[in-house]
Amino acid sequence: MGERRDLPAARQAFASADEHWEQGEGGDPAGLLDGTRRLDLKASLLKVDGQPEQALALLEEALQGMDTDPARGRLLLQKAVCKEIAGEYEASIQALAEAEPLISGEPEPRLLFACSFNRSVIACHIDSYEEAARLLPRVEALAAAADLGTGLAGTRLLWLQGRTWAGLERREEAIAALAEVRQYFLSKEIAYDYALVTVELATLYLEQGQTPLVKELAEEMLWIFKGQKVHKEALAALALFRQAARAEEAKAEWTRRLVKYLYKAQHNPRLRFLSPQARLPRAR
């Protein structure tokens, strides 16, 4: 989520791979090549390229007749992520539940970590923070087993912890975690995630009545607008936040709605931030 990607190059590579596969398909009468892996990888591209429905179609094709447990579990995990991106959280949870027993025996714990991590993320998406807190110790243990405690993976785990603590109103712990996450995304220039965690942090400050700190956060977002590293619909929503924060008129209820929008819009550049005019902060 939010990493830098060269999508045009990836699209070209997969177009070439599809052409070569079609040309050479007849040369593998025994079916020794795993065609589902190609579909799996292409679905990954479509998923991050804002085409979850097309990704799901490929995954369903790959799942047809797939009875090898680890491979099927991997595909179901991909399906769960696509469903999450589409906002179909119950369907995502169901796919994760199907995937988990298929990958539990794998010597590589990363898939099992991803399964538990994504389930916890969905719990936060639907404001089920008690459930997220219940799941968190297992996520942390699997992260340690997979040696995922540092770098981007470690930062995403800290982000999940911060979101969970925020939902449980453990605000000081949440603020400390989210501030650290925000600094990491700034250092790596991961613009979208930086913007998202900034609004989450701003919401916590607004709940504490610290509007001057929110104004500071808004000023520190300027580099995102200069670099145009966020798609235009999300950028328009962030501009509203920045204007309201600068005028010290942002409200926590409104920023919470903005956070939910930003999560949904991350892989959907056509999604607009629709807010009743009466609830919009007035920008001076």
Describe, in short, the structure shown:
72% of the residues lie in helices and 0% in strands. It has helices spanning 7-24, 35-48, 52-63, 69-85, 89-103, 110-125, 129-145, 151-167, 171-188, 191-207, 211-219, 222-227, 232-246, 252-265. Helix 2 (35-48) packs antiparallel against helix 3 (52-63) and helix 8 (151-167) runs antiparallel to helix 9.
Can you tell me about this structure?
By secondary structure, this protein is mainly α. Among the domains are: about 70-150; about 175-284, no CATH class. About 70% of the residues lie in helices and about 0% in strands. It is built from 14 helices and no strands. It has helices spanning about 5-25, 35-50, 50-65, 70-85, 90-105, 110-125, 130-145, 150-165, 170-190, 190-205, 210-220, 220-225, 230-245, 250-265. α5 runs antiparallel to α6 (about 110-125). Mean pLDDT is about 85; it is low at about 1-25 and about 25-35.
SSE inventory with pairings:
Layout (H helix, E strand, L loop, with lengths): L6 H18 L10 H14 L3 H12 L5 H17 L3 H15 L6 H16 L3 H17 L5 H17 L3 H18 L2 H17 L3 H9 L2 H6 L4 H15 L5 H14 L19
Helix pairs in contact: 2-3, 2-4, 3-4, 4-5, 4-6, 5-6, 6-7, 6-8, 7-8, 8-9, 9-10, 10-11, 10-14, 11-13, 13-14
Q: Give the ordered list of helices and strands.
A: HHHHHHHHHHHHHH
Average of per-residue pLDDT values: 85
Q: Name the overall outline.
A: globular
Beta fraction: under 5%
What class would the helix/strand composition place it in? mainly alpha
Count of DSSP-assigned helices: 14
Instruction: Say how many strands there are.
Output: 0
Low-confidence stretches: 1-24, 26-33
The biggest sheet amounts to: none
Radius of gyration: 20 Å
Q: What fraction, in percent, of the residue positions are helical?
A: over 70%
CA(first)-CA(last) distance: 34 Å
